[in-house]
């Protein structure tokens, strides 16, 4: 059925090979982040088979539940909600945290389940999403001391997240604050603190430049691996495919009509007052995919001679006037995706999935 996401498993594997080679060259362990494709089970199986991947990571415990039986350790990236601590301890080997009350609940639950739960303490280096603010050194020490009192929690490492809310780019400077902090905490509290997690796909470029601070020993990659793009500067990673995952939708109407709507322009289906470009009479294809399935601003047709005009909830309208191919009703159009486009399609109930094996 269409619309559908098509996972080319061979290309996905090539992407994994390419990014893991870089990560290992940087002496880092690798967490593969599965949220952008909703922890798809077939993808998870492929990732689990890859010898260079050390952990599965996701922001949602529901996604982790989907593959916790596979032979890789699992990491919950989003700070746990209080109602989910029982599932977090059950299905995640490690979780990222910044709040003592939550960590205490995780400890209570770990006692109940007879487990030791590992946590990575998040430090905010200026992106202003999660973590204890790095300048608040007393708060960091206090937190470490409180964590060390808990019987069934292991302080497994420090972590930072950048280039998300504040769009701050990881550099040698800011990441060195984290490695220095890890060093001080190890010495002061006589701790191993095995993991210092230096960020997401935006930190990858530092390895190739030789600028990843020594002491950062873990990266968490989603976009870099699935779309083959590092996210500090948006560069393609050599040896990766941009079309490892594509989105397909079917043409349900094809007619020549004007490009300008006729009559007084009010508001469109989403309350916006749109502006239309006059292209004269054009060949318009309507595809059975809309904003319930896709993020129109984050998808691009593979055929370079056609373009997206707009979309409503259930319809995508394209201009195929200049196409070399003679499109017909029933034909399927394929799109490459940017991050938001993949996320939306992978989380829509209406989008089917298909897998190319070789
Ligand atoms: C989503 C997420 C990642 C992965 O980000 P990418 O840019 O896709 O590599 C890493 N860490 C955290 C905490 C996340 O929420």
Task: Please provide a written account of the structure.
By secondary structure, the chain is an alpha/beta fold. It folds into two domains: 9-226, TIM Barrel (Alpha-Beta Barrel); 245-356, Lyase, Ornithine Decarboxylase, Chain A, domain 1. Helix content is 27%, strand content 25%. The chain is built from ten helices and 17 strands. It has helices at 9-25, 41-48, 61-65, 85-91, 100-113, 137-148, 172-189, 205-208, 223-226, 339-347; strands at 4-8, 29-33, 55-58, 73-76, 94-97, 117-124, 132-133, 153-159, 195-197, 218-221, 245-258, 281-287, 299-301, 307-311, 316-319, 332-337, 352-356. Strands 2, 3, 4, 5, 6, 7, 8, 9 and 10 form a nine-stranded parallel beta sheet that branches. Strands 1, 11, 12, 13, 14, 15, 16 and 17 form an eight-stranded mixed beta sheet that branches. A hairpin with a 4-residue loop joins strand 14 (307-311) and strand 15 (316-319). Helix 4 packs across helix 5. The longest helix is centred in the middle third of the chain and has 18 residues, at 172-189. It starts with a strand and ends with a strand. 40% of the residues are buried. Pyridoxal-5'-phosphate binds at residues 33, 35, 59, 77, 161, 200-201, 220-224, 231. Pyridoxal-5'-phosphate (PLP) is lined by residues 33, 35, 59, 77, 161, 200-201, 220-224, 231.
């Amino acid at each position: 059925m269409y619309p559908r996401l098509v996972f080319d498993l061979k290309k996905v594997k090539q992407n994994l090979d390419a990014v893991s080679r870089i990560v290992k060259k940087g002496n880092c362990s690798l967490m593969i982040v599965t949220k952008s494709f909703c922890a798809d089970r077939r993808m998870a199986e492929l990732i689990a088979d890859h010898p260079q991947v050390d952990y599965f990571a996701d922001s949602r415990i529901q996604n982790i539940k989907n593959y916790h039986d596979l032979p890789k350790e699992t990491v919950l990236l989003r700070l746990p909600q209080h109602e989910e601590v029982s599932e977090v301890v059950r299905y995640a080997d490690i979780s990222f945290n910044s709040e003592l009350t939550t960590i205490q609940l995780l400890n209570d639950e770990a006692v109940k389940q007879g487990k030791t739960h590992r946590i990575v303490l998040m430090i905010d280096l200026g992106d202003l999403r999660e973590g204890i603010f790095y300048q608040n050194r007393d708060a960091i020490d206090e937190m470490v001391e409180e964590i060390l009192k808990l019987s069934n929690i292991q302080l497994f490492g420090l972590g930072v997240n950048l280039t998300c809310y504040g769009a701050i780019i990881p550099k040698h400077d800011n990441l060195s604050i984290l490695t220095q902090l890890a060093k001080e905490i190890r010495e002061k509290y006589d701790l191993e603190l095995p993991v210092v997690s230096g960020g997401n796909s935006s930190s990858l470029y530092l390895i190739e430049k030789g600028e990843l601070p020594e002491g950062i020993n873990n990266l968490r990659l989603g976009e870099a691996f699935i779309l083959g793009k590092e996210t500090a500067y948006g560069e393609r990673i050599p040896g990766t495919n941009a079309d490892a995952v594509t989105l397909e939708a079917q043409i349900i109407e094809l007619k020549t009509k004007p490009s300008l709507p006729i009559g007084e322009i009010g508001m469109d289906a989403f309350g916006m007052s749109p502006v239309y470009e006059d292209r004269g009479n054009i060949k318009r294809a309507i595809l059975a995919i809309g904003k319930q399935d896709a993020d129109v601003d984050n998808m691009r047709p593979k055929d370079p001679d056609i373009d997206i005009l707009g979309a409503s909830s259930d319809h995508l309208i394209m201009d195929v006037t200049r196409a070399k191919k003679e499109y017909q009703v029933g034909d399927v159009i394929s799109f490459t995706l940017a991050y938001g486009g993949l996320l939306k399609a992978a989380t829509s109930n209406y989008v089917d999935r298909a897998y190319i094996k070789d």
